[in-house]
Design goal:
15 helices, 2 domains, three-stranded antiparallel β-sheet, 377 residues, 58% helix, globular, Fic-like fold, two-stranded antiparallel ribbon, mainly alpha
Length: 377
């Protein structure tokens, strides 16, 4: 199928509305648009450079947790949550009551991504894994009554208050089995010669068009991008997350997906997707470079602490994964009494490595500010 000849699908009359039946995608794809070739080359190069940091950065898995947190927060914010990355690195007891529902939704996303990545060691990227991931994402939060972990058994829609004024109505329930079967086969079809980044772009479009769950489709669809690239060894570690680009260009993101269905312009969507990969890879590289520079600077500062240097290094290894802490947590982590733990934190504040955020004399919270800010840019 040539991009230039692509027909996105047809509208089918249901009871008092029309649903969209997307064209299946499990076949060869070609294109004449030279712009795609140039963008594909740039995206592949940028992704390769990002992958290099997964090899050369010591203890890279420490830093990947923050990548996941940022992605979870941004992807959820596209759907309407109002948390910031600072909220997501704090425990539930530190979150204002009015933000706790949003906080939990993002925590579910973090858990869903981490468990999905873990299961890729033993399971293929499959409908089963997608359902399992969705169940984690939707459990115990808004939408928990919309069949977590199960493909929908009723009609859904996007935009508007009902089917009568919806902006988009996905395929009818009766069409889901065939569409999802085709989607899964496309993910694993090694007999078609389509570059992985192109396949990933097409798979994301198709998943969003099918909209197989009653809720959570956008977050699962964006999460699938990283899962696809990791499962196919195109990413060595889960370091590429496109939600930040999609949020910053939210109008273009939705317009590009909609334009495929309304104008058959799959090429425009693929170009947008590849630009997202390029931009996000370049920002990921910059983040890793900033982290390495920060790490070297901190090591120089820690060397001035004498006998406390070893404990300070242990604490910093913990803070690279969870960049806020309290005196009690430091006591538990380092097996210290209150005074030594308090003095260590006082020294780290004086060295401008940590910042105390509450202004209280008790129940103080310390923030690893430069590190958090490296992911907030």
């Amino acid at each position: 199928m040539k991009f230039e000849d692509f027909k996105s699908g047809v509208y089918q009359t249901q009871y008092q509305y029309k649903s969209f039946l997307p064209t299946t995608i499990n076949h060869e794809w070609t294109w004449e648009d030279a712009r795609i070739n140039v963008l594909l080359e740039q995206a592949t190069k940028a992704l390769g450079e990002l992958n290099a940091f997964s090899i050369i950065v010591p203890n890279v898995d420490l830093f990947i947790r923050m990548h996941v947190i940022k992605e979870a927060n941004t992807s959820s914010r596209i759907e309407g949550t109002k948390t910031e990355i600072d909220d997501m690195v704090r425990g539930a007891e530190m979150i204002a009551p009015e933000k706790r529902d949003d906080w939990q939704e993002v925590q579910n996303y973090v858990q869903a991504m981490n468990e999905a990545i873990h299961h890729l060691d033993t399971l293929p990227l499959s409908l089963r894994l997608i359902r399992d991931t969705h169940k984690i994402l939707m459990s115990g939060v808004r939408g928990e009554h919309k069949a977590p972990g199960e493909f929908r058994a009723s009609q859904n829609w996007i935009g508007g208050s009902s089917l009568a004024d919806a902006a988009y109505i996905p395929p009818h329930v009766s069409d889901l089995p065939a569409l999802l079967d085709d989607f899964e086969k496309f993910l694993h079809n090694e007999e078609i010669s389509v570059p992985h980044l192109i396949k990933c772009a097409l798979a994301h479009y198709q998943f969003e068009s099918i909209h197989p769950f009653l809720d959570g489709n956008g977050r699962i669809g964006r999460l699938l991008i990283t899962l696809y690239l990791v499962s196919n060894k195109f990413l060595l570690k889960p370091t590429l997350y496109l939600s930040d680009f999609f949020e910053k260009h939210r109008g273009d993101y939705y317009d590009s997906l909609t334009r495929v269905r309304t104008s058959n312009d799959i090429g425009q969507w693929v170009r947008f997707f590849l630009r997202a990969v390029i931009d996000t890879s370049e920002k990921g590289i910059e983040t890793f470079e900033n982290i390495l520079t920060l790490h070297r600077g901190i090591e120089n500062k820690l060397a001035t602490l004498g006998r406390r240097t070893e404990n300070a290094r242990k604490l910093l290894m913990h803070l690279y994964q969870s960049p806020t802490t309290t005196i009690n947590e430091v006591q538990d982590l380092l097996k210290l009494k209150y005074d030594p733990a308090n003095n260590l934190m006082k020294s780290l504040v004086e060295l401008n490595i940590l910042q105390e955020t509450t202004g209280y004399s008790r129940n103080r919270i310390f923030r690893f500010g430069d590190y958090i800010d490296a992911f907030g840019k």
